[in-house]
Specification:
This protein is an alpha/beta fold. It is built from 10 helices and 8 strands. It folds into 2 domains: 207 residues, Ribonuclease H-like superfamily/Ribonuclease H (Nucleotidyltransferase, domain 5, 2-Layer Sandwich); 69 residues, no CATH class. The longest helix is centred in the C-terminal third of the chain and has 28 residues. The chain is elongated and about 75 Å long.
Length: 298
């Protein structure tokens, strides 16, 4: 009988953060505001992009966390060979995953990647017959998508009955990413003018920001579980559980009120939030251990 339980092995669980740049010929640049890039139209092609392979359950400085770039000018305008190298990079992740029968699928992360980037990679790879359609489907569509334009909808106020996907501008503003972003349509003119370094710099920054946003969101999710207030008695119980350094840090994250209760401060930065989440986890584990010891003794 097949075990349907998915495993998340730290050395195999991977997220590929990526962002692509597409070329749109001048004749297709006008008209209504919409996605202009179309992998099936004549004269359209993939300029390239940046891919960061990230192992979220391993340390941030683990050597397996790597970033690679693929740009058409480095391939002498040979889009087919560039795509073949991109496929090879992604396929390496799948091969690692398939070493375990129940390892969770590869995760793809980005903004708008479900409706644009993945579709483009599939279409252009199919055009050049780099693999069979069945193989391409497995590579691109069997993955799990962390598409930020959808995931972050609940973080915004929504007026009326219409749920709206969120733009890159909305998302970077929400997470306080201090990056100046110009319209992606400017990339076409930069490519025409051979201003390749500007394209690379913009794209590199976008992918680096994706990882930063992901980490900020993880802190946000964990921080939601942090207690907003503690009674004097609970604080004394926590003092007995923690080392002095951890307790001092925790107590400094709260404001003591006139009635003796401790209220969580609202001006903590991401570093403080992350450390506080770690300390709260220690408290939970120590309480559980203490309870287990009590049950055993009884």
């Amino acid at each position: 009988m097949t075990n349907k339980h998915l495993d998340y092995h730290p050395e195999k669980t991977q997220i590929i953060f990526f962002d692509l740049e597409f070329y749109v010929p001048e004749k297709d640049r006008e008209g209504r505001r919409e996605l202009k890039a179309n992998p099936y139209k004549e004269g359209h092609f993939l300029i390239g992009g940046t891919f960061t392979k990230y192992f979220p359950m391993l340390p941030n400085n683990d050597k397996r966390n790597v970033t690679k770039e693929f740009w058409i000018w480095d391939y002498k305008s040979d889009e087919k060979t560039m795509l073949a190298d991109i496929l090879k990079f992604i396929d390496e992740s799948w091969k690692l995953i398939y070493k375990s029968n129940n390892q969770a699928e590869l995760f793809y992360a980005g903004i708008g990647i479900q409706r644009a980037d993945i579709q483009y990679l599939f279409a252009r790879s199919k055009k050049y017959k780099l693999k069979s359609e069945s193989e391409l489907f497995d590579i691109f569509y069997k993955g799990r998508f962390l598409d930020f334009e959808n995931i972050f909808i609940p973080l915004f106020k929504n007026k009326g009955n219409m749920l709206k996907t969120k733009s890159t501008h909305d998302i970077i503003k929400k997470f306080n990413i201090e990056t100046e972003r110009k319209a992606s349509t400017g990339i076409w003119e930069q490519f025409d003018s051979k201003e390749y370094n500007l394209i690379k710099k913009r794209n590199n920054t976008e992918v680096a920001d994706l990882l930063t946003i992901y980490k900020k969101f993880i802190i946000y999710m964990h921080f939601k579980e942090v207690h907003e207030r503690y009674s004097p008695k609970v604080i004394e119980d926590i003092r007995k559980l923690l080392k002095s350094d951890d307790f001092d840090f925790l107590i400094n994250c709260y404001k003591e009120m006139d009635d003796g209760w401790y209220i969580l401060k609202t001006n903590l930065d991401d570093r403080q939030k992350k450390i506080l989440c770690t300390i709260e986890n220690k408290i939970i584990k120590k309480k559980a251990k203490k309870q287990n010891q009590k049950e055993v003794s009884e």
